[in-house]
Amino acid sequence: MLSMPTQPALSNRAAGKARATDVGIRLRVPDSQAQAQVAPRRAALAARQPATVSPEQLHRRSPSAAAVLDFCPSEYHAQPQRKGEVAGPVPKPNVKGRPSDADLRHGALYVNWVRTAVLARLSQMPQMDVPPEEESEYRGLFNVLMGYISEMEPLLPLYACWMAEETIKQLVTANVVVKQQKLYLASESPRFILNLQTVTLFIRQIEKLREAIAERQRALQRQTTEPGSK
What we know:
Elements: H1 12-17, H2 20-23, H3 32-48, H4 55-61, H5 63-69, H6 101-121, H7 135-152, H8 156-162, H9 165-186, H10 196-225
Region (Disordered): 1-60, 79-101
């Protein structure tokens, strides 16, 4: 579902300037009570899932996930432009090395463009069924997912500078949809646009992406400690 980010080569100088907060995500550990509630379900689902999930497999197993992450770039500028909206399409930045302030502004512009397109499509997402007996488990898992989304949100402009385009589009989409689901859960009559299986798959894929980002950070650190690095 979420493709792994590309690994651009960084110069020693750029690697030396990179900070952990620029490219990493702090590890969020759920409290013991929430972890005890959701861990058995996550383990059971992980045992039944393959190591990787293709978009076609995801569509068969979880239609709501496919609706969230099935992108058609032409749709991004199919909606009439409203006042204050960014005129699209906005090209994704492609930065090798540490992004400059101008690169980050470009990344933020790109993220906002994708976000606007996703918001325009939210009304097309069908309502999903979450049985009452699963709702407690659902909310526990959703809190884990929301934690990941909240940590990633301020870093999206940075990720837009070096991640693969498909990956950053999917991250922005997940960010928008999960935040909308949070609003629905807080209402007096909760509705669901993500079902339990989709929430679990999102968690699993984001965790894999977090691992890839952490590995990128370790690679940067190795570059700065290698003999002869500047």
